[in-house]
Amino acid sequence: MNICSYTYEEFLNLVRSFHGHVAPGVIIGGFMVDLALATLQAEEPAGAICETSSCLPDAIQLLTPCTIGNGRLKVVNIGRFALAVWAKNQGKAIRVFLDPAKLAAWPAINAWFLKLKPKKEQDSKAMKKEIKEAGSQICSLHHVKLNPAFVTGESHVLYGICPTCKELYPTVHGVRCLACQGKAPYIKSPTKD
Amino acid sequence: MNICSYTYEEFLNLVRSFHGHVAPGVIIGGFMVDLALATLQAEEPAGAICETSSCLPDAIQLLTPCTIGNGRLKVVNIGRFALAVWAKNQGKAIRVFLDPAKLAAWPAINAWFLKLKPKKEQDSKAMKKEIKEAGSQICSLHHVKLNPAFVTGESHVLYGICPTCKELYPTVHGVRCLACQGKAPYIKSPTKD
What is A156-193's CATH topology? Predict the structure, then answer.
């Protein structure tokens, strides 16, 4: 049993090294990516969308050339455990999702994902066994047509110096940067050393 | 010259393998992460914020335990080439940013980042030489106080089945999932095979 070009064990090691621990969601994500790529009739995906920010983006980043930093992976966090991949010059994408109708047959995975039991009462050993055995059997796939608004990157960003913080920012954001428009993730504008 | 625990060449190879090509932004990002971690008085960062979705998130994911999928890296895309990292139980973070005042001394990097010349006329060899020589000399750092709203994860998401698409979704989103509320990144709701 392989996950893309890796053996199951090799993939677990990759996940441990990148994600920090062998999270069930990343392993399931590995099987989802594997299914999506096997269905996609192309050497590699040109891009990917992930519908959750939890676990699944790391499986995509580990198994495809699509990363957050190269812009080929977009996280559109609408909370479904699903991904879509597409090939170059194809308007259609393959979407793979965790299918609740199929999940019901795997009680330990089901209990974990749906939080049916408190964490302490969940059988982690049984869950890991089920994840390996189930593979992509808990997923379904279909074709979707991409909304270009979510796919097109910021192609030609021009920078200027913000008159307030004196840092570089995309001038398309306005006369000053978004941080100085109140969108900074910090409490009040920092005082520079 | 090292970038965190890697030699410069080792880091370039990592970047090539993960990001797909040796992008100047990821190399500069590597020096920025290195500077941030050297300043952070902790074994490893508990979390990170990246203020751009371009290049820099991959340097953070390669050099710290913070990834998109494990929730320890948040991209707050306000367009500044900057990152912040923090240690556990510290309200303050170290923020490192590309400093335009310092960038001016490095003409090839400056021309590339600010797109002062058409791509064809840029001297890519000179730029790579400058990037290696400059290291983190083109950056500045200061302390910032984090806004908890951007740092706290989705801790205990409860899932239900969406009555429209029959998929699992966080019930906190409403009576149906965000995709079925019109937020899907696809053109019209997909027909399932």
Answer: Wheat Germ Agglutinin (Isolectin 2); domain 1 (3.30.60)
